[in-house]
Amino acid sequence: MRAEYLPQSTPEQARDMLYTVFFGVLSVTYVYCVNEMSEETCETLPSELHITKEEYDELGRLQRTCNGEIAVNKCEGSCKSQVQPSVITPTGFLKECYCCRESFLRERIITLLHCYDPDGVRLTGEGRNSMDIKLREPSECKCFKCGDFSR
C-alpha cells in the first residue's frame, strides 16, 4: 500500500522545512531559558574612587597635582538580552542587547585636599592646598539598548 497523501518535495524544500523546524525549536528553547534564568539587576551603587587632577600654566608646565578619595555612584548589574534565529538578517540571528547604564546624571563639586608642587612637596598655602573639580555621576541607572546614545 502506497501513501499517496504525502506531498513530494525537492531536496531544497526538505532542507528549508528542516531549518524551519530547527530554528522554531531553538527559538522556543531560547525564549524559555531567557525568561526562566535571566533577571535584570541594574542598580545605582555607591563606590569610592581615587582621583588625581593636574593643573598646568599657559606654557604647559605642571603647576600642581591634587588627589583624593571620593565617594561616587556607579551603575552596575545585568540586563536581559537575547539572540534569536532570523531568516532576515545576514548572520542568521537577531541580537537584542541591553546594557546597564545611567539614566540621569547629577553634577557635583568635589574638593581634592592633597595638593603637591611639581617636586612632590605638599602645598599648604591658602588657595593652593586644595582644588575644586566638577564631576558628573549617575543618580539613576537602568537598562538601555546597547549602542543607543540618543537619550
Automatic annotation (TrEMBL):
<dbReference type="InterPro" id="IPR034441">
    <property type="entry name" value="Bursicon_suB"/>
</dbReference>
<dbReference type="InterPro" id="IPR029034">
    <property type="entry name" value="Cystine-knot_cytokine"/>
</dbReference>
<dbReference type="GO" id="GO:0005184">
    <property type="term" value="F:neuropeptide hormone activity"/>
</dbReference>
<protein>
    <recommendedName>
        <fullName>Partner of bursicon</fullName>
    </recommendedName>
</protein>
<dbReference type="GO" id="GO:0007186">
    <property type="term" value="P:G protein-coupled receptor signaling pathway"/>
</dbReference>
<dbReference type="GO" id="GO:0031395">
    <property type="term" value="C:bursicon neuropeptide hormone complex"/>
</dbReference>
<dbReference type="GO" id="GO:0001664">
    <property type="term" value="F:G protein-coupled receptor binding"/>
</dbReference>
